[in-house]
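Quick one:
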Amino acid sequence: MAKRKSAKKKQQEKELYTYLTVVIVSACLLIACMRLGIVGMFLYNLFRVLFGEYFYVVLIYLCVIAIMYNVKRYSKSLSLGKLSASVLLILALLIWAMMPYDRQLSGFTIFQSYLKNIPLYFAGQANTFGGIIGALLLSIFTILFDYQGTIIMIVVMLIIALLLVVPLSEFTKIFDGGSKVLKKSKEMLSTDEEEEEDEEEIITNRQPLINTINVDDGPLPTNKKSRLFIDADDKLEEDESHEQFQTPSSEEQVPKEESYVQPLAQPSSPSSSVPKTSGPYTPAPLSLLDPLSASKKSNKNQISAKEKGERLIEILDNFGIHANLIATHIGPSVTKFEVKPDASVKVSKIQGLSDNIKMELAARDIRIEAPIPGKNAVGIEIPNVESTMVKMKELMMGIPKDKEDKPLLFVLGKDLMGKNVYCQLDKMPHLLIAGQTGSGKSVCMNTIITSFLLRCDCDDVKLLLVDPKKVEFTPYHKIPHLLGPVISDPNKANNALKIVVNIMDERYDLFSQVGVRNISVYNEKVKNQADKENGLKPLPYIVVIIDELADLMAVAGKEVELSIQRITQLARAAGIHLIVATQRPSTDVITGIIKANIPSRIAFNVSSGIDSRTIIDQVGAERLLGNGDMLYYPTGEPSPIRLQGVYVTDEEVARICEYVSSQRAPLYDDAFIRLEGVEGNDNTAIMAACDDPLYEEIKEYVVEVQKASASLLQRRFGIGYNRAARMMDVLEDKGIIGPQQGSKPREVYLKKDSGQ
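Output:
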């Protein structure tokens, strides 16, 4: 008995030690997962380096196996097959986690590259993927089977593990059960169909006759299929039961409203109907933009930033500048290193080493921001190894809720922190864009315009586009947001700016009469109060976009400068904003008056530091990389902000313009239709009848309603009195309407059914 008790005690002590071991290991695992203290961080990084990002799965498995192996009642359930299956599952998991490491490497170069980056993994600055074990296994498998074969082998390992755990008899039962279920379902379907047919026969036999038929005419029809004609009641029953006994004709197959609905549902399909100048309008949906591609996880920029950061400190130390690297920010195309030098170091000394740093780091170009505003550090910006494209759909989907109702909000790009940057044109209130050819200036302007098309109603925001090159704004010729036709003649553009100045003066006169200070207060007052009875209507915001200012300055420099000066000084409260772009940022184009009145500026890559000073009053734009890399200098900021601009393709612009053009036709303001007659500050224009885009529509409307008057045309088409009166004179000259007869209405000679 004593021997038996001693054996039991030994077994109990063994189980106790096992449980203590499991508790200690579990505590270590919990401390490692929660990263508690120095021990927790060390264990966490050690487990990650050994087993990768799924280390907790491996440790939990080892704890469970240890408990089951040392406890008698559980040790019997362990078998070689189950242990082998679990080991295969873990190995397959580690290899699968290691697959995205670097597809350009293969063989033992994967394992060697992984060992070189172990300091980064212990510092927690990089993803460990499948750990050292996963890297070793992937190296062996890629030597034997390559990457495609490795994926096949992972699947094979999973199938083998499943076969080791589940016996073959269970698989046969599953297949037999599935076949039985299929047979039963087929039998049930067949019996249901037979019962439905029997019920139909009973119903048709018991159905009373609605129309009385003589007995001598023949036997009564007992089935609907045997009848030659179908009554209206029978047709309704057929529609309810979804049974088609008669094929519809070609006229019945096409719905009547399809030609009107189709342009809204499918913007790319041609529509036979011409868009109207009034009616419902919905902004273009985000689905017209290209879908977001899956982000590829790559650590090349992180590894390069780590190496260049250490090398940067060494370079500064070689020149006698003692500094510390305090932060690293990896942006879409540029990495910014924040370096804190000693108090005895002059900032100008670091700026003078830009070429040496550029040579030592073998960088394409660098930019030094000394110092960073609000920080006791110097910023050194170096291009990334891999650049990331900024898509417009991503930024449009990420608009903050507090800015969704801002009418003049547009997307711009991402900063070095990866944060989305949005701009409000009414806060700027005007914008100057400059940069040499190919730097991304045209894409930036397309981004601004498409942002308005995706967000704004055509009655709330109006655009006036000036395109001296005649090709930049070609897709926007038919959008309903246009205030007038796209202007390509510099002389007409000069006259259009004068008309904008007159519109600004008229709006201020209206504001003084109503007793408001700006357009937002005016529109709120018109919506809230019953001022519409007095003829007051909400005023749209007007955005004037000039693609090339140098051409306008070459033709009429003083007049253009005077118009821009008046617009930029006074037009903010009137809801008129100006966006000016040029590829020649010289002092004769961007004069001091223009710079003083346009505080918000965007500088793309330029050829020299002199051009950079002309745009943003400091050097730095000559160091940009191009392809949308910009310096954004908003009003109120102490220094420019480096951004990677949004890239919008020509196909996206074409789809958006086609969609908005299919809903509404542009309704031009009278003063912008013909600009040859504008002289001085007079905004009167001479226009021929055949050139008016509304002539045909007005003629059809007059013939349809059989009445015509200037006030009727004003209310129906939203045009001014002068234009409506000219249309009345033209219709009278064409013989469509009769002359004016005092207070009597004019007679319409052309009737609906007659041709002209």
